[in-house]
Amino acid sequence: MSHRAYQVVKEAEVIIGYKTYIKLITQLVSDNQEIISSGMTKEIDRCNLALQKALAGQNVCLVSSGDPGVYGMAGIMLEVVKGNGLLGQIEVETVPGITAANAAAAVLGAPLMHDYVVISLSDLLTPWETIAKRVELAAQGDFVIVLYNPKSKGRVKQIELVREILLQEKPENTPVGIVTNAKREGETFVISDLKNFTSEEINMFSVVIIGNSQTFSFENHMITPRGYKV
Amino acid sequence: MSHRAYQVVKEAEVIIGYKTYIKLITQLVSDNQEIISSGMTKEIDRCNLALQKALAGQNVCLVSSGDPGVYGMAGIMLEVVKGNGLLGQIEVETVPGITAANAAAAVLGAPLMHDYVVISLSDLLTPWETIAKRVELAAQGDFVIVLYNPKSKGRVKQIELVREILLQEKPENTPVGIVTNAKREGETFVISDLKNFTSEEINMFSVVIIGNSQTFSFENHMITPRGYKV
């Protein structure tokens, strides 16, 4: 958590968020702050509520995990403000955070030292064809590939399809890191390879990082060299 | 800066870094800490020195800007440790940070709400053909595109070539955000479009973010919608 995020949470009169993320900041919250938590699929309701409270003159903090601007709440909030004709009229600050990609990379060592892509495998709002095409192009470009939302209880096929697409372009022994609960309680990680990684435990708290052609793993570390002569 | 990064700087006996980044943390440093700063191209020397100090039993902090694992020092440090046969034997912790991409995105609003790529235009260690190909594939995949090291005093052509490549695939009015000194003293930003953005001031402290087909700009904000019905 950044100093600025800490400060913003502390100064807020109202804190609104998905319940899992509200739980993560419980120890920062004081009795005179109003806390509103709600479940999944209530994203737009939360933003409407945040706007209502802000219009009533309150200092509102909308909480999101990782970085609120990377598959988080920042964009939805701004769209709701715009939809109400208020963008530029009420003050909205996006506080950047440490993304799941960066937290997971730090756990693995340094896999993101060269050009990389971030792709979410959730096909709730994005057609699967678009996702599959992006995975293929990322492999063709020899990008390091970071996968968000790789698998959930109800969505298990996508990660297998990604593996198949990548095996058309990349060697079987390409290092693959899986980090679950990166930099949080219960953190675990494993370094596998493109052939075998889908047999490891992967869930909705996991980030999967697939190396480029230069990435190597060694002593529980995953490293993408930049090309310096070490 | 994250709480953990702050703590690590405070606890270190030796702090080593590129002089520009050492300057950014001057106010955190105390008299009984040894500070070693050096110039550009001294990356490997800095890592060797850090290793030496660590082997002598000191708590060493190697400082890097943004996230040390994204085009930063984490990978080089791990390679130097490995080169000396010490990986797994001395403790190396990578502390994740807020990348320039995330800081710049927060300044612009929420341009990274969907799949994105991060590409460095520095062709010092990477052949230009590789970089150009990646830009082209990123455009084909309709990724949001983040450009690091877009331009420096001696390297001005690359950003123009990128513009030409992108104009083959994307409309002229695609929003382009340029943020210089994101979340630092002297921060400036401008939102332009693919046709015109290279006429804006871009330097080595700038990050350039090019929207996908859904990205729009409005009232000094750049937003990539996720697809929620707002």
Question: Which short descriptors sum up this protein?
Answer:
homodimer; 230 residues; alpha/beta; three-stranded parallel β-sheet; 7 helices; 11 strands
Number of strands of chain A: 11
Biggest sheet features of chain A: 5 strands, mixed
Our estimate of the beta-strand percent of chain A is: 15-25%
Biggest chain-to-chain interface with counts: A-B, 72 and 72 residues
N→C terminal distance of chain A: 33 Å
The total of helices of chain A stands at 7
Shape of chain A: elongated
Describe the SSE topology.
The structure is a homodimer of 230-residue chains.
Chain A lengths: L2 H9 L2 E5 H6 L9 E5 L4 H13 L4 E4 L10 H10 L16 H9 E2 L5 E5 L7 H13 L3 E5 L8 H13 L5 E6 L7 E6 L12 E5 L5 E3 L2 E3 L7
Parallel strand pairs in A: 1-2, 1-3, 4-11, 5-6
Antiparallel strand pairs in A: 6-9, 7-8, 7-9, 10-11
Give a written overview of the molecule.
Two copies of one chain form a homodimer. The first copy, chain A, is α/β, with parallel strands linked by helices. The first copy, chain A, contains seven helices and eleven strands. Chain A has a five-stranded mixed sheet with strand order 5-6-9-7-8, with helices on both faces. Chain A has a three-stranded parallel sheet with strand order 2-1-3. Chain A has a three-stranded mixed sheet with strand order 4-11-10. In chain A, α3 packs across α4 and α6 runs parallel beside α7. The two termini of chain A are 33 Å apart. The interface between A and B is large, with 72 and 72 residues. β5 of chain A pairs antiparallel with β5 of chain B.
